[in-house]
Design a protein that fits this description.
Blueprint (H helix, E strand, L loop, with lengths): L1 E10 L1 H14 L4 E8 L2 E8 L2 E7 L2 E3 L7 H9 L8
Parallel strand pairs: 1-2
Antiparallel strand pairs: 2-3, 3-4, 4-5
Length: 86
């Protein structure tokens, strides 16, 4: 598993999106996880490819279907930040 430990760090949504997508593309056969703050919100991710097995933003815990398109994947990542001016 590729662990992206950003505990104690606050990054922008655009930095988060690039980090997750770069990791997903570089490690196509590995699980990855992220833990840190994005736009001031606590975020945890566990994923494989475009499958978000667990995606927690603040108090909201969600996931995605397996093998969704990259467009759907990025939309899913963005959905908790849409109204926060990411």
């Amino acid at each position: 598993m590729i662990i992206l430990d950003y505990t104690g760090k606050n990054i922008t949504f655009q930095e988060f999106l690039k980090l997750i997508n770069d990791t997903r593309k570089l490690h196509r056969q590995d699980w990855y996880s992220f833990n840190g703050y994005v736009n001031g919100k606590q975020v945890a991710v566990k994923g494989f490819g475009t499958w978000l097995q667990q995606y927690i933003v603040g108090e909201v815990n969600t996931s995605s279907g397996m093998e969704i398109s990259v467009k759907q994947f990025n939309e899913r990542l963005n959905s908790p930040f849409k109204n926060s001016g990411n």
